[in-house]
Amino acid sequence: MVTLRKSFSFALTVLLFQAGYGAVFASTQQDEEARRIARVKAAVDKRGVGEKAGVKIKLRDNTVVKGYIYQTGEENFVVRDAKTGKSETIAYRDVAQVKGKGLSTGAKIGIGAAIGSCATLAVLAIAIAIAWD
Q1: pTM for this one?
Q2: pLDDT 10s digits, 59-83
Q3: φ/ψ of residue 19, rounded to 5
Q4: What's residue 25's pLDDT?
Q5: CA-CA distances (angstroms) from residue 23 to 18, 32, 36, 93?
Q6: Helix/strand/coil (H, E, C) string of 90-105?
Q7: Beta carbons of 87 and 76 less than 8 angstroms apart
Q8: What is the domain partition of the chain in residue ranges?
Q9: Cβ atoms < 10 Å from Cβ of 72
């Protein structure tokens, strides 16, 4: 009798733990998805709206949409192709990656460093040439 009671108690504990764990795991996935959508929305909002707001959007199905952000909303945004004028409405939840047109921050820093180095070398070369005369 004692063994049956212990087995029943153990089984009940396992079932309750699994039910609670599944609810926590589902909640965590929903929270992560909500954070991902918020990051996508922030990236789209950061770019602004208009022809100067060029973007390259990679969707979760690996489709790529290029153009500029024409309009934004709560659940989706519109990307318009500058060449054809074709518009496509994209839900934030379908976006995998948002890239702006132009150079990345790292590339801009690298170019600035290269220009600064060249200018420094030019000034040193001129100073040395003047000193030798």
Answers
A1: 0.57
A2: 989 999 999 989 888 899 999 988 8
A3: -65, -45
A4: 53
A5: 9, 14, 20, 22
A6: EEHHHEEEEEECCCCH
A7: no
A8: 2-102, 103-133
A9: 16
Q: Does 20 have pLDDT greater than 60?
A: no
SS3 47: helix
What digits encode the pLDDT tens for the residues 81-132?
888 889 999 999 999 888 877 666 777 788 888 888 888 888 888 878 888 8
Assigned token pair, 42: 């922030």
The encoded tokens of residue 113 equal 């460093």
Architecture of the domain whose range is 2-102: Roll (2.30)
* Phi, psi angles (nearest 5°) of residue 132: -75, -20
Residue with tokens 């952000």: 69
